[in-house]
Design goal:
The complex is a heterodimer of chains A (263) and B (326). Chain A is 75% helix and 0% strand. Chain A has 263 residues and is mostly helical. Chain B contains 13 helices and two strands, in the order ααββααααααααααα. The chains are: A mainly alpha (263), B mainly alpha (326).
Chain lengths: 263, 326
């Protein structure tokens, strides 16, 4: 039988709670995971280029942008980046634009006092450089498979072990991210109103996440050993160029010669 | 604290990249000798952990939220060399795939967040544990490790920003890169870190550490070495850069002389007119005729020595107290 006190109606109105930070955390985790998970196997032009080539030319472009002092060269690179942006798929185009614009504009605002002191040209140049670089980097990460990018790092004399650890990291960001989303949801569902220990729970979640990751890494090692892993990891790069890759090389050579011409 | 490309000159980025090379090299040697093959995947998973820590939003007074860096926490949990690895990889992923922090500036970012921060945090934690060998000391060490390490990293970042306009100018004397000098960049970086970010980092380091300590203490890094030499190296670097203050035109924020106050607010408050000058032991941090730069370095050295002596005395007192307790 149900005791009487249980069937009595209760008028409990919890104090208005501030859950924003939990929601924000969940949101930023979901955003990260969805970026990692998005498919990059479209048949649009920019997705088909050789990844190693794309990576190398992006980094070269960034180096030349940061060395350049010429407004014309920077504008040409800017146009090139915008053309690239229009070749992207519609959804990622929007995402790249939003992601890349926020930071440069904050910078621009921070530069206003310096512009009042007469430093206008250099400030605008700085703004232009920052926006182009961030766009270039975001384009690369949105139109190339990440595993291909990390493999291409070998060209920069980065040791295989580092690349291997990086690949583990990317996979585990997804796994651990999902785990922590679940923990955060659990925290959100189980707390009503204002409680003082919610704040503690958040650091608890982080601690728990660490213990979980420790266990996961042990499991992973055993799984790898079972499959014959001996501690050596080698990566191979893809050097198969197609016609379109040669066109891409020519465009980038032109950009570099422009840099040499204007500086 | 992620510095994007083009804020710093390419040469600054290159220098810090070269500085990081031996650090990475030493870290990989150390990690190989410390970590069994069984734990190699742990580095990758720890990097993922350090990446995710930055995703957690913590409520701040005023209705906004912030996030911690987690460099201190990982250093305490896994040891400083593994932390160098884990944070470096987390930073590389952020730069390559998420556009946070520059590609060319990766050396600088790693120097600040993957070297200065974990090492300061770890050795401070060790030091506090030694001075106060109870649980309280550990927790205090975790908090201070987080608080101070993020502040030192912010200070180093501010110096990197601040020297740009002094070193790199165009033909008409206008700054090429980050235009604000040390007198602007240092307060702009350190004040928010001292007041908010540092406390956040400290609380998170302390909270997560105490949770893991309770739940599964066996996985916390113990480390064979009990030396705190590297802390001296970091202090040494900081001492050597103290003369940088001379490059700046202004005085440290809040340390104005009467004349500067007059410039700022137009008059000198009456009480300050004659009551303001007190005789410091080392006026203006310089020792008489000694060259100004050298004077700065010596003053910094003296300051550090005095602090070390105080700590030594404190630890002596504590050891005596513990002996009596037995």
């Amino acid at each position: 039988m149900i005791p009487e006190w249980l069937s009595e109606k209760d008028n409990y109105i919890p104090k208005e709670e501030k859950n924003l930070y939990i929601e924000k955390s969940i949101f930023s985790l979901i955003k990260t995971i969805s970026i990692i998970r998005q498919s990059k196997s479209q048949d649009k032009l920019v997705y088909l280029l050789n990844p190693t080539l794309k990576m190398v030319s992006t980094i070269l472009n960034i180096v030349f942008i940061s060395l350049s002092r010429s407004f014309i060269y920077l504008s040409v690179v800017g146009i090139y980046v915008l053309v690239n942006l229009f070749l992207m798929e519609k959804r990622s185009r929007k995402r790249i634009l939003i992601r890349s614009l926020i930071f440069p504009f904050i910078t621009l605002i921070a530069l206003i006092p310096s512009m009042f002191n007469g430093n206008v040209y250099n400030s605008l140049l700085l703004f232009q450089k920052i926006i182009t670089t961030i766009l270039l980097m975001n384009l690369l990460s949105h139109n190339t498979k990440w595993s291909d990018i990390s493999k291409s790092l070998k060209l920069l004399f980065i040791p295989d072990i580092f690349i291997w650890i990086m690949e583990i990291t990317i996979k585990y960001i997804v796994l651990l991210g999902e785990y922590s989303i679940n923990l955060l949801y659990a925290l959100k569902l189980r707390t009503i109103g204002k409680t003082s220990n919610k704040y503690n729970s958040l650091t608890g979640i982080m601690g728990n996440l660490f213990i979980k990751s420790y266990k996961m890494s042990e499991e992973m090692f055993h799984a790898m050993e079972c499959r014959g892993f001996v501690g050596e990891y080698t990566t191979k790069m893809n050097f198969n160029f197609k016609k379109i890759d040669y066109i891409y090389i020519i465009i980038n050579m032109l950009l570099i010669s422009l840099f040499i011409y204007f500086n | 604290m992620h510095i994007p490309d083009n804020y710093l000159s390419p040469s600054t980025c290159a220098i810090f990249g070269v500085v990081m090379l031996p650090i990475w090299r030493r870290a990989s040697v150390k990690v190989k000798s410390e970590i069994t093959r069984q734990k190699m995947p742990l580095l990758g998973v720890a990097a993922a952990f350090s990446f995710l820590i930055m995703m957690f939003n913590i409520p701040l007074p005023g209705g906004t939220t912030g996030h911690a860096i987690g460099g201190a926490l990982i250093a305490i949990l896994l040891g400083p060399y593994s932390a160098v690895f884990a944070v470096t990889i987390a930073l590389a992923i952020q730069a390559l795939f998420f556009g946070d922090g520059g590609i060319l500036a990766i050396g600088v970012n790693c120097f600040n967040m993957a070297f200065i921060m974990p090492f300061t945090a770890f050795y401070l934690f060790k030091l506090m544990k030694k001075i106060i060998p109870s649980k309280k000391g550990e927790y205090l060490g975790a908090f201070l490790g987080g608080y101070i390490s993020v502040n030192i990293a912010a200070l180093v970042t501010a110096i990197e920003f601040g020297v740009q306009p002094l070193l790199f100018k165009d033909s008409s004397g206008l700054p090429l890169y980050s235009p604000y000098g040390l007198s602007v960049s240092i307060p702009a970086m350190t004040i928010p870190h001292l007041l908010v970010v540092g406390i956040l980092e400290g609380i998170i380091t302390l909270g997560a550490y105490s949770y893991i300590k309770k739940a599964s203490p066996e996985i916390i890094y113990k480390g064979k070495t009990n030396k705190i030499k590297p802390l001296y190296i970091i202090i040494g670097i900081l001492i050597l850069v103290t003369p940088l203050g001379l490059l700046a035109n202004g005085t440290a924020w809040g340390e104005w002389g009467t004349e500067e106050i007059k410039n700022f607010i137009g008059f000198v408050p009456k009480g300050m007119e004659d009551g303001f000058n007190f005789k410091a032991l080392i006026p203006d941090y310089s020792l008489g005729n000694v060259q100004e730069y050298l004077g700065y370095i010596i003053s910094a050295l003296l300051g550090v020595i005095i602090i070390l002596i105080i700590f030594k005395i404190l630890s002596k007192i504590n050891i005596n107290r513990n002996k009596k307790g037995e």
